[in-house]
């Protein structure tokens, strides 16, 4: 039995270090001994002896049996920069370098990038470097003081307990004391919360979020990543209007966007969106900074649950598998799909009107202003929002045999529509699928889903949702059968200069009209590469072309 921080007897878990982690530990402790031998202890902290700790996420992940290459090293009595400088000095001694380079070579101990973080005040300088392949942050123990008018904390030297209590969650406040080779739970709740799979703040949650509202998003992200639940008092504080207002108005949208991106790229985006939905945080996180409209989130869960089941279904050969195989092929497209699901409530709201023209679709506007999304993501959302209604119309007309014309003419119509939806047409189709389900056809909600789903799941559907899914399977199967998946990349077999030469005309708007007709002819005649036949067709359209 070990003695816990509160003086009670508590069996503390042990951490098994890998050989490389153990070598790093030995190196850091040798540097601490080197400091003692020099008699240069710096007593800015809580004592004269240098005590080193691995902190934060590394400890949490090790206790969960997950490896990590990111290690934060906390020093009790000097800044990270001071310790890093002495570490470099220690390794500049040949026999020390020889002792530790081993099979890794000197390159693994090259510390030429020991630099102070310029964003930190001089007396709290930190260092980031690479040792034995680990990304190591050297930082002193600290406490935080917040100014009412700023969300940036003023850092001061602190004790180990003060450092633990300032952290966002008890499970992130666990330390591994290198000097004593033991886990430290200085909040007295971290290990219990790890066991019970609970996310809670070390201090009173309202004040914790008041000090830094971004912690609301961080805790949601950790809950979804780890499959933990958020403590009730912590959730209640998250929903407080003061916290919501501070999160929306006082935290940079870049920082909010980074947290949301990590959620949507994590192992359980559905879990994160569900918490946001349940706690009514949608208008705060996916915010409208024009304050002229609010999305209806009453059926949003149908959309993100539908996507979750679509992605995790074990049905590889049926409708679900075929739809998934075409719309969501890799991890990047999976991230885009979750982002579309996240912004889906905004897609039903018409864009604002400025003058006589509509502005950017609401989905794109919310991503741009609310999360500072990159241009690629904004463009995907803009295109999906602009076209999802016409996608439904075209899909419905096709599968219900309402399109007029010969089979070749129907192929041409569908191909031209897809080209108008741009190269991101698959995301337009995905949003239309989610919207149809949100408007009525729900997946069966029979069982309570765990936060982290197994990789395979048998999915059943209500009759309404089965009809929706089947219709998209038919639509996408038609696109594949007709070879239209890559229609946006279809090249003109007759180029613009050839058209100008054939018509004897100069460059002008008429050339674009002619090239549009070239694509129409190619879609109508997919097996033909006959340029002469194509030019004859264009000649018959001379009046329409306007030349």
UniProtKB/TrEMBL annotation:
Annotated ranges, domain tRNA nucleotidyltransferase/poly(A) polymerase RNA and SrmB- binding: 227-286
Any Gene Ontology biological process: tRNA 3'-terminal CCA addition
Gene Ontology molecular-function annotations: ATP:3'-cytidine-cytidine-tRNA adenylyltransferase activity; CC tRNA cytidylyltransferase activity; nucleotide binding; RNA binding
Matches recorded under CDD domains: NT_ClassII-CCAase
Keywords: Nucleotide-binding, RNA-binding, Transferase
Residues spanning the signal sequence: none
One Pfam family recorded for the sequence: PolyA_pol
Source species, domain of life: Eukaryota
Tagged with keyword Transferase: yes
GO CC, any one term: mitochondrion
InterPro entries (UniProt xref): NT_sf, PolA_pol_head_dom, PolyA_RNA-bd
Record Gene3D superfamilies: Beta Polymerase, domain 2, cca-adding enzyme, domain 2
Poly A polymerase head domain residues: 52-200
Family: Belongs to the tRNA nucleotidyltransferase/poly(A) polymerase family.
Protein name: Poly A polymerase head domain-containing protein
